[in-house]
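Example record

Each entry pairs one chain with its bound ligand, nicotinamide-adenine-dinucleotide.
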Amino acid sequence: MSLKQQQYINGKWVDANSGHTRDIINPFNQEVIATVPEGDETDAKAAIAAARAAFDHGEWPSTPATERGTIVRKIAELIERDKEELARLESLDTGKTVEESRGDMDDIAGVFRYYAELADKMGGELIDSPVPNSISKVVHEPVGVCGQITPWNYPLLQASWKLAPALVTGNTLVMKPSEITPLTTIKVFELMEEAGVPTGVANLVLGAGHTVGAELSSNVDVDLISFTGGLVTGKKIMEAASVNVKKLALELGGKNPNIIFADADFETAVDQALNGVFFHAGQICSAGTRLIVEESIHDEFVNALVERVKKFKLGSGFDEDTQMGPLISAEHLAKVEKYVETGKKEGATLAVGGSRPEDPELQNGFFYLPTIFTDCKTDMTIVQEEAFGPVITVEKFRSEEEAVKLANDSIYGLAGGVWTNDIVKAERCVAKMRMGTVWINDFNLYFPHAPWGGFKQSGIGRELGRLGIEEYTETKHIFHNLKPESINWF
Ligand code: NAD
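Structure tokens for the complex follow.
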């Protein structure tokens, strides 16, 4: 596989200033799949300087939006051309099934296409002027230099949500992917170069959060930080970004409730409750890990889940019959194990899973069995905190009011679901649910033109949709007096 395995700064493929490198590990077998530069603050500063110069002195911000859209559309076409290679690289790096990665690549190309189409359709506005012979207009301009920091769970998908809207609106940028999973992002920077993104406009720095990420967050030449990742990191970035009052877009964690009423279509709700969590081994910000099930069907529902979970096929993402791959790293596996131990100590009942698999073929990978806890109470750590793994907690409810109360009992507010055949009840519930996305009789569905983001501590701002492009613009009011006259006050 041809991959540059370098950083991309000011139109050049470069190693780290320090010469340091980092091995990228396949989570299925711990083999080294690539060795990439380990950049630090100095690499980040060089990239920020390039992006600053391209914004302040380059042509990109004033390039007609239609032309920027054409380049971004070309990126979508190149992603489609290289879809299979990108999907296999993503699976190698993250452990998820290739089938899932292929779906990601379709979505990613779709995001670039969507924003390419929007490029020249955002427009401005003429507003009524209080002064005769004058023009009052509102225009949208690029914010400037954008720092973009992404997580390891959906590396290229999360990158696409940031790259495409930033580019079409005429910003310049420095991206830092997760140090664990940078490979598809490197590849897409190759494709962006091929598509004709001008020198200095898009820069890629590889390295750790506390070095490269911290520099992006605190450097005064960065005007906006768009971050997707955990809550603790998000708070640090928010603090660092106050140095020059950067614009902030934060996509943080989620602990997403999925309410199952007794009148829901039972089989579909069981199936989708599983789909809502166990894709990519539960390492999804919007995973419906908090199941809230009506008492009258609780036992039957849990039994049905457990029977299905016992049959899951764990294995290599490259085997066609694999349903669930490994977790991302040894550290993350240890974190999930710790949460499960805490759940047991706090009195939850382990219905299935709760350990690493015994299969000898899986011992080199970071595998964990799909796990379901019952008898969960809302104040338990496993109900409140993001284990970010294949772990479901089940709570019981007796009334609609109680279900909504349990659903809202979280510092997070990213997403949630309601399963019922009573449409009036469904609408009543979702009106009270404090989350950025709520699904009725579905779960985890998202698409480029629907806004995505969180209420409460799940974040600030929105990605995708028109709001996702607006994050990358500053609004300017221009007042033009066509017949100026003296006021003669002073
Ligand atoms: P993380 O916060 O550990 O890391 C995310 C990124 O931040 C990485 O690139 C990391 O290097 C960088 N980083 C770490 N410390 C930093 C610092 N001090 N300054 C600047 N950057 C720093 O998160 P993760 O473990 O990679 O991802 C999992 C988290 O991401 C989960 O909480 C998940 O819910 C969240 N997530 C949210 C969404 C969403 O749309 N809301 C999507 C995907 C993932």
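The chain has a mean pLDDT of 97.
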